[in-house]
Design a protein that fits this description.
Length: 433
C-alpha cells in the first residue's frame, strides 16, 4: 500500500522529535500501522535541530495554507501552539478532509467541542494523545483502556515545571523565586512562566481528562485554578513534619452533587506513590470502580516523549483510515449524543481536608479562640503544630478533617479578624488519595 503522507505545522522541538521518530523507527511503525507513514511537507519559520532528522525528502514552506490545503497530504500534525491560528488551521484542515493530530492542550481544552463537531460532520479524526502528559498514554487509558469502568476520580501531576520547582524547594529548602530562575536556566520554564506556575497549563489538561473520564463536554472555563507562587519553604517544611508532601495537582472527581474540576497545591501523604513523583516527571492516578487505582508515570514533555505520543496517534489514524466513521473510537470516549450535562461544582462546594498556617501573638487564649471558631463552623482538627515563639510571635499549623470549602472560608475570615492574628491565614487543601 502507498504510504500515508503527513504535513507538519511547526518544526520546532516537538516537530523535530516527531520526524526523527518516524525516520528512525520507520520499519517498526509500518509493521504496526500496516503501511508506511512519511512526512512529506512541513511549515517552519526556522528548523531547530535539537534532535537529528533529515529534511531531504520534506517540502519546506513558510505558508501554513500550502500544507493544510495540499491534496496529497492525508494527515496534518498541528504544533503551532496558542489557540487563534491553531484553531483556524485545524478547522481548515478538517474542511479539506484531512485528519488532524495535535499536541495543543489549550486548543483542545478551549475549542475542542467545536473542533470535534466539525470533524464528526466531515468524517475525519482529531487525535490529541500528546496534549496531556507528554509520553504517558493517559488519553488512551481513560478513553479505551478503562472503558469497562465508571471512573470515580483522577488526580495528576500534569505540569513538569511546577513539579520541578516544588521538588527543589523540598530538597534544598530554597525560595520559590530562586528555584523558578533555576528552572528557567535549565530550560524547564519559559521566560514568561505564567501558564505553568499559575496552573493554566494543568487546567487545560485537566479539562480534557475530566471530559474523557465522565462523558461531559469540555469546559475549561469551569476549572478552579490556583498556582504555586505563594508556597514558602516553611509550608514545605511543615508538610514534611506532618508526614505530607506538597504537589501541584489537577483533580477531577465525580460526586453526588456534580463534578469537581480543580488545580491547586495539595498536601499528599508522603507514602503515596504520587507524592514521590519528583523533578519534571508527570503521573496520573485514576480510580475506576472495577479496577481500583491505576498509576501512570513518565516524561511529561520533551522532543522524543511528546513525539512518541504524536506518532502513536498517527498509527491509530492510519489503522482507522478504512474504518466506517461511525465505528471509530469517539473523540471524547463517549458517543457524542450521550455526553452528559452533569453540573460542574464551584470550589465553594468542594469537600476536602485543609492545612492552615497562621502567625499569632504569643499570648494566652489565641489558640483557644481559633479552635472555638473552627468548632462553630463544624470543622474538626486532626493535628496541631505550635512553633516556639520568636519576637512575641508564634506560628500555629492546623490540619483539619474533611469539610466544605465554604465553611473553611467563613472560619478563615473570622480568624483573621481576631486581635491576636497577624496577617492572613495560609490555606492549602489536603487529599489522602
Amino acid at each position: 500500500m502507498k504510504p500515508v503522507k503527513v504535513g507538519i505545522l511547526g518544526l520546532g522541538t516537538v516537530g523535530g522529535g516527531t520526524v526523527h521518530i518516524l525516520q528512525r523507527n520507520a520499519e517498526e511503525i509500518a509493521r504496526r500501522a500496516g503501511r508506511g507513514i512519511v512526512v512529506t511537507h512541513a511549515c517552519a519559520k526556522e528548523i531547530k535541530k535539537q534532535v537529528e532528522f533529515s529534511t531531504d525528502d520534506i517540502v519546506l514552506t513558510q505558508q501554513l495554507n500550502d500544507v493544510v490545503t495540499d491534496p496529497e497530504i492525508d494527515v496534518i500534525v498541528e504544533l503551532l501552539g496558542g489557540t487563534t491560528l491553531a484553531r483556524e488551521m485545524t478547522l481548515l484542515a478538517i474542511e479539506n478532509g484531512k485528519h488532524v493530530v495535535t499536541a495543543n492542550k489549550a486548543l483542545i481544552g478551549t475549542h475542542g467541542n467545536e473542533i470535534f463537531k466539525a470533524a464528526q460532520e466531515k468524517g475525519v479524526m482529531v487525535a490529541f494523545e500528546a496534549a496531556v502528559a507528554g509520553g504517558i498514554p493517559i488519553i488512551k487509558v481513560t478513553r479505551e483502556g478503562l472503558a469497562a469502568n465508571k471512573i470515580n476520580w483522577l488526580a495528576g501531576i500534569i505540569n513538569g515545571t511546577s513539579n520541578f520547582i516544588l521538588t527543589e524547594m523540598r530538597d534544598k529548602g530554597s525560595e520559590f523565586n530562586d528555584v523558578l530562575k533555576e528552572a528557567q536556566d535549565l530550560g524547564y520554564a519559559e521566560a514568561n512562566p505564567e501558564f505553568d506556575i499559575e496552573g493554566i497549563d494543568a487546567a487545560h489538561k485537566l479539562t480534557i481528562l475530566a471530559s474523557l473520564s465522565f462523558g461531559i463536554p469540555l469546559q475549561y472555563d469551569k476549572v478552579y485554578v490556583e498556582g504555586i507562587t505563594k508556597i514558602t519553604p516553611k509550608d514545605v517544611q511543615y508538610a514534611d513534619e506532618l508526614g505530607y508532601r506538597i504537589k501541584h495537582l489537577g483533580i477531577a472527581k465525580r460526586t453526588e452533587k456534580g463534578i469537581e474540576m480543580r488545580v491547586h497545591p495539595t498536601f499528599v501523604p508522603h507514602k503515596r506513590l504520587l507524592a514521590n513523583v519528583d523533578g519534571v516527571m508527570n503521573a496520573v492516578l485514576v480510580n475506576g470502580d472495577m479496577v481500583g487505582n491505576t498509576l501512570h508515570y513518565g516524561a511529561g514533555a520533551g522532543a522524543l516523549p511528546t513525539g512518541s505520543a504524536i506518532v502513536a496517534d498517527l498509527v491509530d489514524v492510519v489503522r482507522a483510515l478504512t474504518t466506517d466513521p461511525g465505528n471509530r473510537v469517539p473523540h471524547l470516549a463517549f458517543q457524542p449524543n450521550t455526553l452528559s450535562d452533569i453540573p460542574i461544582l464551584s470550589i465553594d462546594e468542594v469537600e476536602t481536608a485543609y492545612y492552615l498556617r497562621m502567625n499569632v501573638l504569643d499570648k494566652l487564649g489565641v489558640l483557644a479562640q481559633v479552635t472555638n471558631i473552627l468548632s462553630q463552623n463544624n470543622i474538626s482538627i486532626e493535628a496541631v503544630l505550635q512553633k516556639e515563639p520568636r519576637d512575641e510571635h508564634a506560628e500555629i499549623v492546623l490540619l483539619t478533617h474533611t469539610v466544605l470549602e465554604k465553611q473553611v472560608n467563613v472560619a478563615i475570615q473570622a480568624i483573621e479578624q481576631l486581635g491576636g492574628i497577624e496577617g492572613s491565614v495560609t490555606r492549602m487543601r489536603l487529599e489522602t488519595l
